[in-house]
């Protein structure tokens, strides 16, 4: 039987070196540089939360329609999700675009800590993700038309990656069933096309209900919902000792009462559970639910919960990843202007002993297969069709995602430059895939072997509808 290693090594032979043949797609990307920066900045200014990205989604749709794409909005029962397509015949190559921001973290584009009044921010760089993917889709559309290459390029507008699992609902609805290959990318503090997997995860809001009473005058009449939350948290924290190494469990109390002298009759805690194996997430979840029931029983309260999101782990396709790595290496890393370097040096100072030399932005990291401890709804897409991604240095080296430094760089020319760099890599990869049927076939063979003959897609969300109000 041919193994994944065989398919990965075969991909090297299929990969087309970057020559004059591939300069034309890059010319098309260069022509979109102003658009990349403009769209990225507008999305950063709006910083709309998951499933509420009305203006962000509309802007992307307008840009695509102006380039001749046909656009279908509101797919998979999600108002801010869409698919845009151009071309006919040939293979279908998809590019994913995210555009939701994170709540509770805001920052201006200053290189020093400077809160914005907005209350939300693109701390994961999804404004850049959307802009870079948009540019790549338009560049490939123009290249297809100029060269007469058969094929269809699609851009999928995918809302609410941050805890909303927008792509899962799209996958569940069959939106990727006829896609040959899916491409994605992400903001980062380094350039890499390494074959990095992700953790499966599931989240839920556990809601405890008790009885209100005067905390001093009649404590015997009350039953604290907050006690239920705290009892659950205590038991879960003890449970951590008895879980496997890949397990990640984290929570935040979203509501715990308003005044100390009022016994709260409602409290809520929001939990995430992650593991590299989706079945282990399910097993951990059974234990998590047991702690909730036990906490309610012990505190005289009632509890119910709502699953909010769930993602399968990313299924790596090394046949594609090695070719993407080659494309990224042909481009090299990111070069700062003197002004950008000065700005980046100020950001870097905020990292203290964790600072990394700025020169790392100019490098491409070694290729390797590794486990990433984050989670993404791209994971579900990767089980529906062969999928490959790339990361570029949109942030100052040393920056962590979900930080104020990430927000700042995502609204700065350094971020825009990284998005443009990602667009180049995606465009080169897409052009290769349209031109190279052997590569597509090898990627599909590895994909089919990895899933197995009896594979059946099962989401970690069950049959629930998209939680369109989870950020309200």
From TrEMBL:
Coiled coil: none annotated. InterPro entries: Amidohydrolase, Aminobenzoyl-glu_utiliz_pB, Bact_exopeptidase_dim_dom, Peptidase_M20, Peptidase_M20/M20A_hydrolases, Peptidase_M20_dimer. Residues 203-293 form the Peptidase M20 dimerisation domain. Residues 1-20 form the signal peptide. The keyword Hydrolase applies. The keyword Transmembrane does not apply. Keywords: Hydrolase, Signal. PANTHER family: PEPTIDASE M20 (PTHR30575), XAA-ARG DIPEPTIDASE (PTHR30575:SF0). NCBIfam families: amidohydrolases (TIGR01891). This is Amidohydrolase. It comes from Qipengyuania gelatinilytica.
């Amino acid at each position: 039987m041919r193994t994944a290693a065989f398919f990965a090594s075969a991909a090297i032979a299929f990969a087309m070196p970057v020559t004059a043949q591939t300069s034309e797609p890059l010319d098309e990307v260069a022509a979109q540089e102003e658009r990349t920066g403009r769209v990225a900045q507008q999305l950063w200014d709006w910083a709309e939360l998951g499933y509420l990205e009305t203006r962000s989604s509309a802007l992307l749709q307008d840009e695509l329609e102006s380039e001749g794409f046909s656009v279908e909005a509101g797919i998979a029962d999600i108002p801010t999700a869409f698919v845009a397509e151009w071309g006919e015949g040939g293979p279908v190559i998809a590019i994913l675009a995210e555009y939701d921001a994170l709540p509770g973290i805001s920052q201006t584009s200053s290189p020093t800590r400077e809160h914005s009044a907005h209350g939300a921010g693109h701390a994961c760089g999804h404004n850049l993700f959307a802009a870079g993917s948009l540019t790549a889709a338009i560049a490939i559309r123009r290249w297809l038309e100029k060269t007469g290459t058969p094929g269809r390029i699609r851009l999928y507008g995918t809302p609410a990656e941050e805890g909303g699992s927008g792509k899962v609902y799209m996958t569940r609805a069959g939106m990727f069933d006829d896609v040959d290959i899916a491409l994605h990318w992400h903001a980062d503090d380094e350039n890499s096309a390494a074959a990095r997997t992700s953790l499966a995860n599931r989240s839920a809001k556990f809601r405890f209900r008790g009885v209100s009473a005067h905390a001093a005058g009649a404590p015997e009449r009350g039953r604290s919902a907050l006690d239920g939350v705290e009892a659950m948290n205590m038991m879960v924290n003890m449970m951590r000792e008895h879980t496997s190494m890949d397990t990640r469990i984290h929570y935040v109390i979203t509501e715990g009462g308003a005044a100390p002298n009022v016994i709260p009759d409602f409290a809520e805690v929001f939990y995430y559970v992650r593991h590299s194996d989706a079945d282990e997430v399910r097993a951990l979840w059974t234990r998590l639910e047991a702690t909730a029931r036990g906490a309610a029983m012990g505190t005289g309260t009632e509890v119910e919960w709502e699953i909010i999101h769930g993602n399968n782990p990313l299924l790596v396709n090394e046949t594609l990843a090695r070719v993407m790595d080659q494309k990224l290496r042909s481009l090299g890393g990111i070069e700062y202007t003197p002004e950008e370097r000065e700005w980046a040096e100020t950001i870097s100072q905020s990292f203290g002993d964790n600072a990394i030399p700025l020169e790392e932005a100019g490098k491409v990291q070694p290729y390797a297969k590794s486990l990433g401890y984050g989670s993404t709804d791209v994971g579900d897409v990767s089980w529906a069709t062969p999928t490959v991604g790339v990361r570029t240095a949109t942030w100052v080296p040393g920056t962590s995602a979900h930080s104020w430094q990430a927000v700042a760089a995502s609204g700065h020319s350094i971020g825009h430059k990284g998005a443009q760099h990602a667009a180049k890599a995606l465009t080169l990869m897409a052009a290769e895939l349209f031109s190279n049927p052997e590569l597509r076939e090898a990627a599909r063979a590895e994909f089919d072997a990895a899933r197995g003959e009896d594979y059946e897609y099962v989401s970690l969300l069950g049959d629930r509808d998209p939680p369109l109000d989870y950020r309200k």
